[in-house]
Amino acid sequence: MTNQPPRENSFWPHVKKTFRAVWHRITHNWGWKVLSVLLAVCIWGVLVTQDDSLPRTKTFTNVKVSSANSTILKQNGYIVVDGLEDIPPVNITVQLPQKYYNTATEDRYLIRADLSQIKEAGVQELPLTATVTNPSLYGSVLSISNPSITVQVEPYVNRSRIPVQLNTTGSAPEGYYVGKAQCTPDSLDVAGPKSVVEKIVRCRVDYDLSLLTAQAGSVRSSLPYVFLDRDGNEVDTSLLTVTSQGITTRYVVVEQDVYATLELPVNTQSLIFGQPAEGYQVVSVKVDPEVVTIADDDLTLFQGENVSLYTLGRVNISGETQSKTDTITLNSRGAAYISHPTVTVTVEIRPINEAE
């Protein structure tokens, strides 16, 4: 057995030597080291800018929000009555290839509320969805600042054949007569929120005769309508769909015939026949009215000198001893209008002695 001193482990001296060498490199030649770092950053920047496929994020502010699939919602039996009027704009963050970073604009990203997702009435929280025009170029939407909106939903109902009533005001131009106006259509169908549709009782069209031109002929006017409730108040139609035979309509056509008028006297000849009783005589024959107004699209038959209207009958005074009054129809010759279709004929009969 030999008594030799223990050999020193050579590992730790080697580690210490290596550490000193590294520390020496770190703490010396600062200028070169800083230059190397800057050079590395520049090289990295060049590489990044040259690589168009690298993704980048971009933020757009005040992006408009729209709604979609309202028709599908109505087909499902519902309609939004509140919450879509003024949807506040949102901010979005998108990720897209670096190549299209500068050309990307907010109109490439469509933010919508999909109404077809609504399944019941009441207050509904509706998430916003994002659609990208050409995702391969403009990437995808990572986040939306306000991811949902709140809307009020009602059942969507229909009602058929609501009558159209014409509210006529004013008067026809002087010297003219207007016939009965006709509305086309004479009834309307409505569809909309249940709370609105159930209020409607009738439809009214206001028609002012004073606006007619002083000219004979057929006049057609396209006029707006209003819906009224039981108390005569107008019903808001902004959410209603109004149709006639399946065609959406915003106006009612009012057709009106306008005729020129003419005043004619009633012919007082041959208004009586027969003779009063013996000892009596006819003192006077009076007709009321003495002048009537007629209207027609062709008045040539009624024009000329001494033209008058005859009656279609006469008062029979045979054997009468007292004055007699009767109503007799006038011969209007087929005119479109006559102010007095009949006249009252009064025959005054007195004894001959009293008459003298």
Layout of strands and helices, then pairs:
Elements: H1 11-27, H2 30-50, E1 55-63, E2 65-68, H3 70-75, E3 78-82, E4 90-97, E5 109-114, E6 122-132, H4 135-138, E7 140-144, E8 148-169, E9 176-178, E10 182-184, E11 187-193, H5 194-197, E12 202-208, E13 217-224, E14 226-228, E15 241-244, E16 247-248, E17 251-265, E18 272-273, E19 280-288, E20 291-296, E21 315-316, E22 324-329, E23 337-338, E24 342-351, H6 352-355
Parallel strand pairs: 2-5, 8-12, 18-21
Antiparallel strand pairs: 1-4, 3-8, 4-7, 5-6, 6-8, 8-11, 9-17, 10-17, 11-15, 12-14, 13-17, 15-16, 17-20, 19-24, 20-23, 22-24
Folded structure, characterized:
By secondary structure, the protein is an alpha+beta fold. The chain has three domains: 55-146, RNA Polymerase Alpha Subunit, Chain A, domain 2, CATH 2.170.120; 156-260, YbbR-like domain (RNA Polymerase Alpha Subunit, Chain A, domain 2); 266-355, RNA Polymerase Alpha Subunit, Chain A, domain 2. It has helices at residues 11-27, 30-50, 70-75, 135-138, 194-197, 352-355, and strands at residues 55-63, 65-68, 78-82, 90-97, 109-114, 122-132, 140-144, 148-169, 176-178, 182-184, 187-193, 202-208, 217-224, 226-228, 241-244, 247-248, 251-265, 272-273, 280-288, 291-296, 315-316, 324-329, 337-338, 342-351. Strands 2, 3, 5, 6, 8, 11, 12, 14, 15 and 16 form a ten-stranded mixed β-sheet that branches. Strands 9, 10, 13, 17, 20 and 23 form a six-stranded antiparallel β-sheet that branches. Strands 1-4-7 form a three-stranded antiparallel β-sheet. It is rod-shaped. The model has no long low-confidence stretch (mean pLDDT 88).
